[in-house]
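Researcher: Please predict.
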Amino acid sequence: MNQEPSQTGFQGLRVGALESRMAPEMERLITRHGGVPVVAPSMQEVPLSEHPQALAFGERLLSGDVDVVVLLTGVGCRTLFDILETRFPREAIKEALENTVLIVRGPKPAGVVKSLGLHPQIQVHEPIRGETSSMPWMFLIRKD
């Protein structure tokens, strides 16, 4: 691999990059291409037991206060379920989700939902790479 600085790259520009696990490598890459790296993590890993918002959601879900659940990513969906399972039995979570409308975006959250033995009522396709999302956003209002 060529370790010499690029003659045409960033030409001294400050380059921001959101990177967590590979931050040192990203800094070297930007520097090698003539940039001044500003690298910061895009997210932070937090132990599953330290997610008060997710656990509060679980409380509301299990008490029947949630009508609709929208799941956008497979990783987020799996993480949410893992967090909920630190406090609530899997069967109770599954039963509560059966009493909601499950909406998933794309095949990955659908796969996670199906692995629990559930089926989403609505599955929205993911935007095609390079296309701006023309997918209409839904505003869901709880009926009391």
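Model: The first strand starts at residue 14 and ends at 18.
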